[in-house]
Design a protein that fits this description.
about 70% helix
Amino acid sequence: MSSDGARGISRFAMEILVAAATAALGVAVCYGSTEAGAGWTEMGPDAGYFPFYVGLLIVLGSVMNMLLAVTRHRKLGVIFLDARRIKSVASFLLPLVGYAAVSSFLGLYVGTALYMACAMHFQGRYKWWIALSSGLAVAAVFFVVFEVGFKVPLLKGPVEAWFGIY
C-alpha cells in the first residue's frame, strides 16, 4: 500500500516478481544448454556454449534488478497496478487468452475472425455487422498472405476442413 491509502500491487513486488521470472528463464536457458553441451571441444564451442553464457547474463541481470529493487523501492510504497488498471489490462488480456483457446480448437483463421469481430464490437463499440464483416475480411487477408503468398500453412480447424481448405 502507498502512504495515501491506495491499494494495489506495489512497484517493489512487481520488480521482484519480474526479476524472479527472468532469473528462472536464465536458469532454464543454462540448464537446456548444458544438455546440448556447453563446453569447448577441439573443434570449437559446443552447441550450448553461447546460450549458456547468455543464460548466465540473464541470471546476473535479474539478481542485479532484485538488489536494486530492494535498495531503491522497498520502502517507497508506490502502487504499480491498482484495481482500475487491472480491469483495463484484463479487458485486453482475457480476450487474447480466449483467442488462443479458440484458435487451438477451431484454427487460427476462425479464431482471428472471431477475435477481431468481438474486439471491434465489444471494445470498439462497432455495429455487429461491421465487426463481423471486418473480422472475416481480416481472416481472409491472413489466409491469402500466409497460405497463398508466403506458402506458410497456419493452424487449421474443422471449419477449413469443411470448406476443403486443408
